[in-house]
Write a structure and sequence with these properties.
This protein has about 525 residues and is α/β, with parallel strands linked by helices. The protein has 5 domains: about 5-135 and about 215-265, Rossmann fold, CATH 3.40.50; about 165-210; about 265-355, no CATH class; about 370-420; about 430-515, Arc Repressor Mutant, subunit A (Orthogonal Bundle), CATH 1.10.10. Helices cover about 45% and strands about 10% of the residues. The strands form 5 sheets. Strands 1-2-3 form a 3-stranded parallel beta sheet. A 3-stranded antiparallel beta sheet has the order 5-6-7, with no helix packed on it. It is elongated and about 95 Å long.
Length: about 525
């Protein structure tokens, strides 16, 4: 059983058959794949519950009332004046949206929709300003001593003697993290700000917010949240889930949600994703070079507590291959006796953007590695199509639009992520490096040309015949393949030789091999 189905069974037994799965994010910068893991985990739980005829709602809260905490590396130094202001009140650094928070959240929301995730969306700024949190703010202020004791007991920290569970918004400088609440009366909170301003913040008008450790349990009760995934930092001993659970029970009289803790996501060779550190790979960027199903697959195949490392380089080729294997297993086109692979069919199902629209017959699988090579051989869609047809990797039912989409993805990957050893360019003129070839290598090329011209060979047959040929001549595999690549690419390595040769125009290959075979640079 896939982990999400096991969790769904446990949730139904503990929480019943009417659930709200919540997730949220503070849009402090580019929302990367590590952040996406939370809403994706919530989406999987929501789907699994619905698969079991349980009612479930997916909720996503945009914490746009959180303050800008610092001038991040991707911001201009002029943003120093906005540090401490709610993100919804900070200008868009790219000047294309109404606010900082809208700039980063809108890109993310477009991406998750393309990835098949469409939650109910609520904005913290609107909820505070419309009074949704008001009763919970008043209750928190009236119970500030007990909340303070809970926080100190669980975290081991000592809060200021006059601490109150409210962050007022300064009416002068517009900052929410530079103020200190010093007293309250009903829904009005007296404060002093570091800018020198003093005043009263009216909670009913959204002139402030609850601190995170109180805000979180308040929203559980407001939205009847029964399930919530969150990162391991919140799950640590003394973390915000520990304090939130106690506050939820003791102050708001609400049972904390079922928790699903997830690990971080990293980029191979760079480390854990972090907007503040500039280690970022957004879902939107990934959609430029991978289909949504493969992006979902990358996370769906791992249990939440397993770390995920995304290899944007050569590993992407293997990732697509693994996804296609899961697809074959789902459609029973491939069997497996390996325990770790038995869930691949279910993983494939969860990887789909729309489970209700999974095709009855397995889609044709374009081999990603071959497509990468074909795109580098021909610049046109028609040329790529001819290569795929010549090498037996095309299906009559596929249309030009489908291929165009994949060609665009491959080109994006080649431009932004592909390592140099996987990039190549067929040389239109005779490469100067062929002068490095020995006599036996030239004989090999001449005989290979005769072989290609006189025999009808597919990929596998040509591969075997190449080996027979260089063994009969008495040279090694290294010398034989270097002769092929130096002749066609001007370098000593390249794509799988048999496939590569069949991908090219036959007349071009024959002329090139024979030209090299008769060349004399002595």
């Amino acid at each position: 059983m896939h982990w999400v189905d096991s969790k769904a069974n446990e949730i139904i037994s503990k929480k019943g058959k009417n659930n709200v799965v919540a997730s949220g994010i503070s849009p402090s910068g580019p929302i990367h794949l590590g952040n996406f893991r939370e809403i994706f985990t919530a989406d999987l739980l929501d789907r699994a519950l619905k698969n079991k005829n349980s009612k479930s709602k997916l909720l996503w809260i945009l914490d746009d009332y959180d303050p800008l905490r610092k001038v991040y590396p991707f911001l201009d130094s002029s943003f120093k004046e906005h540090v401490g202001k709610p993100l919804v009140d900070v200008p868009d650094p790219s000047e294309c949206h109404d606010s900082y928070s809208q700039h980063y959240s809108s890109k993310f929301l477009r991406s998750i929709k393309e990835l098949g995730i469409e939650p109910e969306i609520r904005k913290a700024s609107e909820m505070y300003r419309s009074g949704v949190f008001l009763d919970y703010i008043v209750k928190s202020l009236n119970n500030y001593k007990e909340i303070k004791k809970i926080l100190e007991d669980i975290t081991g920290r000592n809060l200021p003697k006059d601490w109150l569970p409210f962050n007022p918004l300064c009416s002068s400088c517009g900052r929410i993290s530079y103020t200190n609440a010093i007293d309250y009366e009903g829904q009005k909170v007296k404060y002093k700000c570091e800018c020198g301003n003093k005043g009263y913040a009216d909670a009913s008008q959204g002139e402030g917010k609850l601190p995170w450790r109180v805000d979180w349990p308040a929203r559980w009760s407001i939205f009847n949240v029964t399930i919530e995934p969150f990162g391991k930092d919140h799950a640590a001993d003394g973390g915000s889930y520990d304090t939130g659970s106690r506050i939820s029970k003791n102050i708001f009289d609400y049972e904390p949600p079922y928790s699903v803790v997830y690990e971080q996501v990293g980029i191979k060779g760079k480390g854990e994703m972090s907007s503040s550190e500039g280690i970022v790979l957004t879902p939107g960027k990934m959609l430029e070079f991978l289909p949504p199903e493969v992006i979902r697959y990358i996370l769906a195949r791992k249990k939440p507590k397993r770390h995920v490392e995304v290899d944007t380089g050569p590993g992407i080729i293997q990732t697509v291959s693994d996804y296609q294997k899961a697809e074959r297993i789902y459609y029973r086109e491939e069997d497996t006796d390996i325990t770790d692979e038995k869930d691949l069919g279910r993983i494939y199902e969860l990887s789909q953007v729309d489970e209700d629209r999974i095709r009855e017959e397995m889609p044709f699988q374009l081999p990603f590695r071959h497509l990468i090579n074909a795109v580098q051989i021909s610049e046109s869609t028609e040329g790529v199509m001819k290569i795929l047809k010549r090498t037996g990797h095309w299906d009559k039912g596929l249309d030009k639009e489908y291929l165009d989409t994949w060609i665009s993805r491959v080109n994006n990957w080649l431009d932004d992520f592909a390592p140099n050893h996987l990039k190549f360019e067929v040389q239109e003129e005779l490469p100067s490096k062929i002068k490095e070839l020995e006599k036996d290598q030239k004989i090999f090329l001449r005989k290979l040309a005769d072989l290609i011209e006189n025999e009808d060979l597919n990929d596998e047959k040509l591969h075997n015949r190449i080996y027979e040929l260089f063994r009969n001549i008495g040279i090694g595999a290294r010398e034989a393949f270097q002769a092929i690549y130096l002749s066609l690419l001007g370098r000593k390595s390249g794509p799988r030789a048999a496939w590569f040769i069949l991908s090219l125009d036959e007349e071009f290959v024959l002329n090139r091999f024979r030209e090299v075979a008769t060349s004399n640079f002595d």
